Amino acid sequence: MTSMIRKMLMGAAVMALSATALHAETMVIATFGDPTPMNAARATHAFEKATGWTIEWRTFASGTDVIAAMASGDVKVAELGSSPLAIAASQGVNLQMFMVSYAIGQSESLIAHNGSGIATLADLKGKRVAVPIGSTSHYSLMGAIAHAGLKDTDVTIMSMKPDQIAAAWEQGTIDAAFIWPPVQSELLKTGTRIVGADQTADWGYPTFNAWVANTKFAADHQGELVAFAKAMDAANKAYLNDKAGWTADNNDVKAIAKLTGAAAEQIPEILTGYTFIPLADQMSDKWLGGAAKVMKSTAEFLKSAGRIDTVADDYSGFVNTAIATEALK
Q: Model pTM?
């Protein structure tokens, strides 16, 4: 074998190894572990089959934790709420939104502890309200406070992760919390829903969870992300096409319960708190087409509330419509 042929073969081998490296390594995908149809698809390894990846689904407690993981390079693909997404984009984190996970409705709500004296938003004055700071729930809470004509300083906002909120609720050290399932479901056993994110959206503070990817990763692995988007869309459609069939004894619901820890009997009601949008509908100005504007308006509100220091002139670079467009072909 001549040295020239040997070099050619070695070069080809290196290229082959490089092309399959992602398949050999484990892909860490960040999620919040919400009881959604995605988890029923996860149970069948639908995403691995579609992308060819070996996936480790890593559950994060808050969007700020996801931002840190993406900024460090530990995570390339993640679920991220619209509020932390605006924060990340404003900070210049290299990521792009490529599809909507779901629009947030009553799945994120302000729950007041029974006996707290909170019956309306105006009653929040002087009360202790827990929320994961920097999350979509935090953004909705600030919107609700503003809508009620209150100032941030009128309410004692306590920064807590979901598990901390559950513990503080049991101990009676908080009066209310703006939070998502499964903790929300537990709080409702001894609390009352005051307002949901669907209502704060109507007041001008829309929230959603998005799927995002590292910018360079999205460019280098568009094919796999297209397959991922297709699998995600199929998972959501399986629910949308048969909502009534997703009862507590449904196998998909049982799979979701097993993966998320949510009680199977609570999942059907929890699912009604989310709005799952078919990928074809996400191309409209309301969603992907208008995502840059939503990011900017969210960032402007967060700046006015002292959560971030600067707002970018243009957020269009943080939205990737090519993946959804290709997935719909």
A: 0.84
